Amino acid sequence: MTDRVKTQSISFLVLVGLMSWAFWPELQKIVSRGLSDSEWVHILLLPFAIVFIFYLNRDHLLPKITMGSKWGLLPIFMGVILYALCEWPFSYGIVQDYMILPVLIGLSWLIFGKQFTIKIMPLFLLVFISIPIGSRIWATLIIYPETLTLSLTSYMMDLLPGVETTLSGTDITLRLSQGEKIIAIGESNRGAKLFMASGFIALFVLYSSRCSLARKVIVFILLIPVVLISNFIRFLLWGILLAYTPLDYLSSAPRTITGIFALLFVYMVVCFLCAVKLNLFVEDSDDEQTSNEV
After folding, report:
1. Residue from 115, 121, 86 nearest 101 by CA
2. Does residue 115 sit in the same domain as residue 205?
3. Residue 168: beta bridge partners?
4. How do residues 78-99 score in pLDDT, each as one tens digit?
């Protein structure tokens, strides 16, 4: 690392510190969510994930650092102005939380230049999915895929021996020989937040891997269906546990077991897609050069 890059890095860290002071209420709210809600705990891992990915790709990223550009002031001003407008005359706290992103991007562009900032966009994407969404907005966004997941789970559970199901709202009632049990009490909003944790894990594995850029792009496209399938498997496993084990449906055990299984499923599938040799992926002779790209 040259003296110029060291100086730029120190300048960037100082500016990030000032930005953290300016966005302190938003950062406190985000970190508090990670501390209080187990389904957003990946927020606390964000700094370590960013440092680790950057370290793995340092040989490819450091040469992209230039003298910086004053164009970086543009996203910074945009973020500050939108933040102020969401304070008054409008009142959109969730938008204020997201204004951290354009300011961070602007600081990187201002200090390290355009090429470097483009290369580390996946790191900004990790930041994006680590900012909690309001419950009402999230419920609106997730209602269709979650309704489909619940309907499919109900249908699959009906095919199992000794089980009859009834889907009512976000609850699946299982009629068993030993009585009734219920899946998904309030799960339409709560459990679907595992999408963000799953996405975080998937992106971390993808951009920590040594596969080619072409493969990374294809796997990135496949992330959404992988996460959706993991949520379906989670619901189905939840139902099977309730139907064929003595676990009580009010117990936290089914939620915990199935949540861990779903996250492991995403992790293993993304690892497999990044590592397996398939004709779907075009691995050319210069993979060694592109394998370190974020």
Report:
1. 121
2. no
3. 171
4. 999 999 998 887 877 788 899 9
